[in-house]
Protein: Antirepressor protein
Organism: Proteus mirabilis
Amino acid sequence: MKSKNNSLNAGGFAHPKFSDETILNINSDDISVIRFENVQVRIVKINNNPWFVAKDVCDALQLTNSRAALLALDEDEKDVSLIYTLGGNQKLNIISESGFYKLIARSRKATTKGTFAHRFTNWVFRDVIPSIRKTGAYGVPFSALNDFTKRQQQYQITASKHGRDLQSCKQKKADLQREERELWKKYQPDFLDGEIH
């Protein structure tokens, strides 16, 4: 398949360009989240292909000019999608898997030892990609994380109303912390190396 500029892309396969109708059908079941050192990257599954939220990737790679980073990608490696977030549906820039790898390869900080971007890149290539190859997935499904976050917010409202000394609120908080550890243990076990308490 050839793209508009008649060059072959992605090993001979051009990424599909999505219509507004396709984009609007993305729901929380098609979103997962990976987290590294408290930076989250949302991944949207479109036609069984991973697309990454561009802002999250640029933050992880410490790219300060995300607009320039996106302009450097081929047209079939970027798109805009309506994605459910905790604040409601938002239009977000997304990048294809090949676009994600291109941003990593082009990032100076990703190749500079000692930077966060370098650690993130190593983690992607050493942990995330091998896990996806073996199991087909990596990260916590957004719907599970979203449900947890809503209950955590409800706890904070309840704790404020009833005061901090209520034993039931303390127990609920401990239960939520334990549940969060279990979510990360189940979907991203390497993350638990002392980061969630």
